[in-house]
Amino acid sequence: HVKARGKDGYRFYSRSMCIDSANRLSLERDLRLALERDELRVFYQPQVCAVSGRTVGLEALVRWQHPEQGLLYPGDFLPLAEETRLISTLSEQVLAKACRDVGVWIRNGHPDLRLAVNLSPVQVEHPRFVESLMEQLEACDFPPQNLEIEITENVIMNDLDQISQKLRKLADFGIRIAIDDFGTGYSSLNYLHRLPIHTLKVDQSFVQGIRSGEDGACIVNAIVAMAHGLKLDIVAEGVENDVQLAYLRSLGCHQVQGFFYGRPAPADAVVGSLQNAPFRATAS
Ligand code: C2E
Ligand code: MG
Ligand code: MG
Ligand code: MG
């Protein structure tokens, strides 16, 4: 018998795990079809200035409108896309859609609107990563200064010299670089002054530590202080309530993103949020 390491130590492959692998095969087949049939959707979540309440950026988050299973989330299919290398086609489609949507808004009264896109480590490791990203931006006629790529600390762990060269080229081209889920990876802080980074995104788990009357916020305090010292922009992720917002504002956190401002939504639903909404927190 082949053994697999489960949560409780070793266990044997069971029949349910065989069914899982059958499911996996059919999901893989469906995903290939999805890319051919244009079933991916891009949702957008506002990134809001913590001072003015204005939407300054939109993060593109992929969804899959599965013909039978309904709307699927990245957690349901991204790991498989990465394993099967379908991720490169998937990412191209996401970027093309996002550049098209946000490009229209940029040209229609929001010249500084930023598009934030997530990149998978598999993509970044690809030898032609830099060239293909630049080519795609040129093909969609999307201004590189309006793009921010989000990478995680795992990407950086791999080969600092190589990643540094790649990011430098992108930064020289005008693209901004953000570290997503900051503080949850296994990398050292050493990379922060060796890479051309513009933004730290404070992971939502730390933002959730902010509760009135508790001192769970110390990591957020430390990250924001460090970002100020390094002159990096800060986006706090997963802001769900006005207690968190007020606290982040008091720390001098530049931007906030989370359900408090809006859940990720299709393009036509987020257009409204681009008109300068009054600051909700000061009203309450
Ligand atoms: P992420 O980039 O850290 O994105 C934030 C996730 O937190 C999103 O989940 C978002 O819907 C969710 N979120 C936003 N605000 C709140 C909040 O206030 N509370 C809570 N509890 N959650 C909030 P989503 O859309 O399921 O995406 C999960 C992850 O999948 C993303 O994490 C990102 O790493 C990855 N991902 C999403 N789209 C893409 C893509 O197009 N390409 C790649 N490579 N990865 C993607
Ligand atoms: Mg992200
Ligand atoms: Mg994140
Ligand atoms: Mg994440």
TrEMBL record:
Signal peptide: none annotated. Coiled coil: none annotated. Residues 24-278 form the EAL domain. Keywords: c-di-GMP, Kinase, Phosphoprotein, Transferase. GO terms for biological process: cellular response to nitric oxide; phosphorelay signal transduction system. It comes from Marinobacter profundi. GO terms for molecular function: cyclic-guanylate-specific phosphodiesterase activity; kinase activity. This is cyclic-guanylate-specific phosphodiesterase.
